[in-house]
């Protein structure tokens, strides 16, 4: 990767590698050394956006969830969205009732291993899959029952499509949570979905605001403001506090991008947005992609043979570990397949050992979500069959795509053990000899050619100097404008009502006679002295 390569170049290279045309729903995410998530900006240099030293770790993710994922044109796009939502389910982002959780897990099971086979799938086989952070035996039996009796004969593509249709009906579909606190100090998660702005507290969705009701978003430091205009000209301002200013800025930028993508009719309507009302203060940001309506129109024009999809088989997914024994029943031919383990170190080992939760409910149908099961695998009653703690606690909100410092070495060792090349360029070279099958859900982009190209200290000093110079320039400009206004007030003969009211104030008269007139006489005297000195010389 060249030093001046834009984010768009890397993203296009990745989409070409995955044979993906409906690429506007996806993005590349990375984490800085302070564990703050960022979306790679396609209009800026990749190297300049990184604060860490190369090689860089990046994650291929769904950035804008489709409003109707079942309506996507190509199966490869649906499969990638399926992988993302399966990951959301595992990390506790997707809330659902126990019955819905069992159905979603059964769809995953059918897509992973195909039809139930008593010879290959012994009693308790569903427990070898990790669909959620916590499982109960009752839930596992329910998953296996649905898989055996209701899904027989479904191909992986059909199961994934049914999975998407069911997930799209859930309230937290498309939620990418940002941990915050409200004005009372209570913990909350803010998120932007295809349908609007969402606030989650505990197991409940306390706010849902449609995109056409959001009039403005801004931030100041750690404080995030959302301006809402509802019916009958009712205006509301929601205020939340992010953990850090960087997290608040990331939240604001995500909101600006999501509102532009889902709300606008054309990308030509996108405007540059400022986080402050003052022209010289705050951040400015502009969404640079296409909007949802344009993406749908472009997808409808796609006319090509459906690309071959190499679904993950024996290689377990980092986000949702699969059964690692026995062949996976799939409609995809396996003659040209080679297991290439392209993954990222998501810190999953620590997540498995901790008590992260995927809250679900099994109570009344009117409730959004249900209470917890603290006993882990207890199935003593109908209401205990849940896989959650009480609070909404998605793992990726607390540890946003964590990447340990030592994970780079571990990943390189694991990739070499699997016979996988260590970079995109090396993988291209190896494709000529042995065709490789990527795992589309997760990808690690390594940039070995940029060693030592991280931001040097001199560059940081230059940025500081530029910011100071910019501040001085703005200050001098304001002083110059004030001086012009003062001269107009004191020396001009303009007799407008505005100037007349100012001149008649006691404060202005005192300033004029006690300060301005002596200063003018002193300045005139000095000017005459300088002129006479120049004449004499």
UniProtKB/TrEMBL annotation:
One of its GO terms (cellular component) is cytoskeleton. Pfam families: FA, FERM_C, FERM_M, FERM_N. InterPro entries: Band_41_domain, FA, FERM/acyl-CoA-bd_prot_sf, FERM_2, FERM_central, FERM_CS, FERM_domain, FERM_N. Residues 356-365 have a biased composition (Polar residues). Its main location: other. Residues 350-381, 422-442 are annotated as: Disordered. Gene3D superfamilies: 1.20.80.10, Phosphatidylinositol 3-kinase Catalytic Subunit, Chain A, domain 1, Pleckstrin-homology domain (PH domain)/Phosphotyrosine-binding domain (PTB). The keyword Transmembrane helix applies. This is FERM domain-containing protein 5. It comes from Campylorhamphus procurvoides. The gene is Frmd5.
